[in-house]
Design brief:
167 residues
C-alpha cells in the first residue's frame, strides 16, 4: 500500500529541528565537509512534506561506506542510491520531524543543484509561490503516487536550477 503524499504548511520549528539534527550528525560524522538543509523545509513559508531533507557532503567516495555504517547503527533506514549520481539516501522515521539524509562525495552535481534550487527560491518569492502551487496541485492529482508526484515536478525544478546556475 502506497503512503499518501502529505503536504503541510511551513512550520517555523523546521530550521531549529535542522540545527539539532545537524549537530547530532556532525558528532556522528566528524569527517563531513558540510551538512546542508535542502528540500522544501529549508525554504521559508514553503508548503512541504513534514520531512527534513539533509545533504551530508563527505570528502570522497571512499568515505560513503563508513558513514553508511554509522547511520545504520543509529537506526537510519537505507533507501538506496539515488539519482545515479553517487547519492545514497537514508530515512529516520522515528524522529520528529522525520529526517531524510543523503550521503554524497564532495563535488556532487545533485548536491550542487539542490543548493542552487533552494537558494534561488529563497531569493525569488514569486518562483517559490509558483512551486508551492505546483506541489499542491500535484499532491492532489497524485495523492497515492509519490513517485509520480516527484517526477511531475522535475521540469519545474530543472528550469529553476538552470536559471540559478546561470545567475
Amino acid at each position: 500500500m502506497h503512503k499518501p503524499v502529505e503536504l503541510v504548511s511551513y512550520d517555523r520549528v523546521w530550521p531549529d529541528a535542522f540545527q539539532r539534527i545537524q549537530a547530532k550528525l556532525l558528532a556522528l560524522l566528524p569527517q563531513a565537509l558540510t551538512i546542508d538543509h535542502v528540500g522544501s523545509t529549508a525554504i521559508p513559508d514553503m508548503t512541504a512534506k513534514p520531512l527534513i531533507d539533509i545533504d551530508i557532503v563527505l570528502p570522497a567516495l571512499e568515505h560513503i561506506e563508513s558513514a553508511t555504517q554509522v547511520l545504520l547503527s543509529q537506526d537510519y533506514e537505507p533507501r538506496g542510491n539515488r539519482y545515479d549520481d553517487e547519492v545514497w539516501a537514508f530515512l529516520s522515521r522515528g524522529s520528529v520531524p522525520a529526517e531524510r539524509v543523503y550521503l554524497c562525495p564532495a563535488g556532487n552535481g545533485t548536491h550542487r543543484n539542490r543548493l542552487a534550487f533552494r537558494d534561488y527560491l529563497i531569493a525569488h518569492p514569486e518562483a517559490a509561490a509558483d512551486y508551492a502551487a505546483l506541489k499542491r496541485r500535484l499532491a492532489a492529482e497524485f495523492r497515492m503516487d509519490g513517485d509520480r508526484y516527484t517526477a511531475e515536478k522535475r521540469e519545474f525544478v530543472d528550469t529553476i536550477v538552470t536559471r540559478a546556475l546561470k545567475g
